[in-house]
């Protein structure tokens, strides 16, 4: 059994929130499995997990097939590259994770063809056995949220100017980010002043449907970002 991933599930419909379960994902002989425990800190060993009746996650439900017009990153395992993978603890017995990954890959392909200095540098899909198992990006050092917590000075006017430029660029190519916040803004180094907008899993075509959500894409967030800095 390979190293596990766990995530606690809570009900937010009551006050205070109520613990529901802990989801456990692990890999065995190249396959991924998921199970649930009623313990907040369950034992992570083979016997304990086998007693929870783990279910195999079908590859097609988490990893979509590579489409011919999508770019492949042929050297994904480099220290300068960050690979964004599906959050398997969110698996819900449907192909939702695969659909979201493919949607983000399509959006990032548009970004690759229309680059901007204040938008994350996309490098292509990480592919295994003809399926997309992750998306490759340039690795950045820290988020704006982390820099705020560190107490180091931030040129707020410059950050807002750069992110507004990124959003204007997205709108010019008919995209809306839909999740502009400090944790989705990064810097290449801890001393860099060039802010970069990241995380495009909520991005959609303007006036089009939101990924796995109801409603139409309508980009907001820069005003909220300004008030939080």
Plain-language structure description:
The protein is α+β, with helices and mostly antiparallel strands. It has three domains: 52 residues, no CATH class; 82 residues, no CATH class; 87 residues, Orthogonal Bundle (Transferase(Phosphotransferase), domain 1). 24% of the residues lie in helices and 25% in strands. The protein is built from five helices and twelve strands. The strands form four sheets. It has a four-stranded antiparallel β-sheet, with no helix packed on it. It has a three-stranded antiparallel β-sheet with strand order 5-7-6, with helices on one face. A three-stranded antiparallel β-sheet has the order 8-10-11. Strand 1 and strand 2 form a beta hairpin. It is globular and about 55 Å long. The N and C termini lie far apart (44 Å).
